[in-house]
Design brief:
The structure is a homodimer. Chain A is an alpha+beta fold. The first copy, chain A, is built from twelve helices and 19 strands. The interface between A and B is large, with 101 and 101 residues. Chains A, B: This is Peptidase M20.
Chain lengths: ~450, ~450
């Protein structure tokens, strides 16, 4: 019988090597070209779950990428923890901005650099290794179920169907997800909310072909110019989103909630230095923490049109495009917001162009309770590992499927994340601290133990 | 002794084959990757000039792409015509919109489809073949000089130096350029003005790296959103350009000039149908013909930033870019306008981003006289070929170097263009009518004859 600390001590090398192997798969879900790599990743995870001691391990096919399932049921008298994670990753481009190849994990200053290191391979794999420890040291205090999917970065299109079709098999008492950040290694925190998401792609069409900008310029609407005007109009001069009805369902935080939130350590100068900006930006009347944690946002994720190659081309383009996503806060509804955007965008487009709005994917916002047994168990486990009580925070990110879990499986979620905001998620040089990885593995068994105790 | 019509009759096939060979070179000047093809094109033209009977043929190196020179001086008592053209072409993308490959000339419905067919390979090569006829049939009525360059589509960066260094060698009585359009095969026309050009590339930088749009969105300025706001602000609600001082040097046309201009046949419904648009667009208070022919314009030629690949990526980009060009009218100055743009764009950028404005290239506007010997000679030559008197028009395009020719060589220019606005210049499926090509070859010897006569 080893303690988790002893076990990590003696298996650290292997834990890292296995994660590196997992990180070498370019499991990019946004681009169909990586389908084969995605499938290999799923098989790899299934293999590792079996080695760790899971039963009924299965790579479940879906209309999209497969879902890896595995479980260990030791007693019907014990509570059951469902671990959710995702093995798919964001695209790696722009590649030229990576200091080392995105799919060749490299360690610098104690950090693992690779696409997916923190989001989410490094984080869900902590649970596989913690489970391995609990199995080999007779320390598994709850039943456990794993559901690791491959489409989180593209909206979990097929996970909903899978969950609805497997409610029995997925029955549990709490869903644990390690796919979020904490404040720092000195100040652990637990996220208590996730923003929802509404993601659309817009296409603005002017003339039926690219035109010579000298022969036609000035007399025919330029779709790139019109797209710029449309996007510019989506935020007013106070950076409020100018889509009618957009804020209708938003619940304003109470002053108490705001105060609690703004107590989290945040140094605006450090923040600006880290990002290399002279000024922050955002909705008038809200602090930076409130802007990301509690307010809905609208961001242009990509824009393109006309000639974007080397040198100069005097063309009046036929089309211009943008990818636009909106983050939603509790009580907003993804489908309603998508429709509001579509109606508004089509309405404000001038008659000299035609516009198309294509919804990509969405997800509902969630709030996790801070008075639940699961939250308290997570709190105590983190306090043991970090010798400091974690504080509740509101993250700005989204895990679109969580709201559906809660609806379909009737349980709440605990966001037991060990990443840091500075991990460059979705950016070049994504990283995850080796210390974060090992601390996570150390914390998880304690969570299981406390959750079993407090559930009695 | 054959007439030009007989000569065309018996050499038509070869005239087309030679043009096709010329069109097969992907001589794209905007992209350094095509440097070798550009040089091969220059050698090909030099060869053809020699075959046609030119002396002192030379491929003159420059800091950029070479200039092909050739001449035939028959007598100092005869006037000298300098033929200017360019063998470089615009990039061909978006390739997927071409019905047949851009560098594999294909004939459909009597049109030659290929990049450069009309702009300008098909048009300058008419002069080479007309020259060949005049040489072989003892019909050369003027001395002739050819100057065919390879950087017109990127601003003729090195032609100015060449002209200044060769003023003696380039001495002439008129410069003839076939690189513009006429109204139709039923209604020939002569362009009497060219717009100037100011071309810039702008870069907007927000955070020092791409960010997760959930973690940072709403709290950090998105450079794509800011770029959209900046571009949107460059035209006011009447589509006037909102750069202070932009219109200072613009001379308003007299009502007489406007009336003359608006007499040119123009059917707004046909125009809209051809372009597939429901409405035209442009500066309030001006007709479509005035907007392209007599007013300065500002067009977005390209815009890009963030994730533009397949699917969805929730990123807040670090940078966004745009290529923007302005067409200038007589009395505006390219350098002054570029500086006004730069100052204005940098001034209106908010402190949450940094902007860079990089000038690409420019050129000055010109007006060609309608009372000159050369214009009258062109008028008579066109009337002979088309059995209809050509009418003067104001084209919207630019040939940046023309103003410099007039300054350095002290002569005026005749814009003897045989293209049509519908030739898809700078667009996919660029084309040039076989009839236009042959009519051009037929017209040119008559121009030489009339120019010699009227110059006596």
């Amino acid at each position: 019988m080893q303690t988790i600390k002893e076990y990590i001590e003696s298996n650290q090398e292997r834990f890292l090597e296995e994660l590196f192997a997992l990180l070498r798969f370019p499991s990019i879900s946004a681009d169909p070209a990586y389908k084969k790599d995605v499938e290999k990743t799923a098989d790899f995870i299934a293999e590792k779950l079996k080695e760790a001691g899971a039963d009924k391990v299965e790579v479940c096919p879906t209309a999209g990428n497969p879902i890896v399932y595995g479980e260990k049921i030791i007693s019907n008298d014990l509570p059951t923890v469902l671990v959710y994670g995702h093995y798919d990753v964001q695209p790696a481009d722009p590649l030229e901005l990576w200091d080392t190849p995105p799919f060749e994990p490299t360690v610098r200053d104690g950090k693992i650099y690779a696409r997916g290191a923190a989001d989410d391979k490094g984080q869900f794999y902590m649970h596989v290794k913690a489970f391995e420890y609990m199995m080999r040291n007779d320390a598994l205090a709850c039943n456990i179920k794993f559901m690791i999917e491959g489409e989180e970065e593209v909206g979990s299109a097929n996970l909903g169907t899978f969950v609805k079709a497997n409610t029995e098999r997925l029955q549990n008492d709490v869903i644990v997800i390690s796919d979020t950040s904490m404040i720092s290694m000195e100040q652990p925190s637990l996220e208590t909310g996730l923003r929802g998401l509404s993601y659309v792609e817009v296409e603005v069409t002017g003339p039926n072909r690219d035109l010579h900008s000298g022969v036609y310029g000035g007399a025919v609407a330029n779709p790139a110019t019109i797209l710029a005007k449309l996007i510019a109009s989506l935020h007013d001069e106070n950076n409020h989103i100018a889509i009618p009805g957009f804020y209708d369902d938003v619940i304003e935080l109470s002053d108490e909630e705001k105060d609690a939130l703004n107590k989290a350590p945040f140094d605006i100068e450090e923040y600006k230095d880290d990002l290399g900006i002279a000024d922050v930006w955002g909705e008038k009347g809200y602090s930076s923490i409130e802007r990301t944690g509690t307010r809905p946002t609208l961001e242009v994720n990509g824009i393109w049109g006309g000639y974007i190659g080397e040198g100069a081309k005097t063309v009046l383009p036929s089309k211009a495009f943008a990818k636009i996503s909106m983050r939603l806060v509790p009580n907003q509804n993804s489908e309603r917001i998508t429709n509001l955007f579509k109606e508004h965008f089509e309405k404000i487009a001038p008659s000299c162009v035609t516009v198309k709005v294509k919804p990509h994917h969405g997800g509902e916002p969630v709030v996790t309770p801070t008075d639940s047994v699961a939250y308290k168990a997570a709190e105590k486990a983190l306090e043991d590992a970090f010798n400091k009580k974690p504080i509740p925070t509101r993250g700005g990110g989204s895990i679109p499927i969580v709201a559906l879990f809660e609806k379909e499986l009737g349980v709440k979620t605990v966001l037991l994340g060990f990443g840091l905001d500075s991990d460059n998620l979705h950016s070049p040089n994504e990283k995850y601290g080796i210390e974060n990885y090992l601390k996570g593995i150390e914390t998880i068994p304690a969570f299981f133990r406390y959750f079993a105790e407090l559930s009695k």
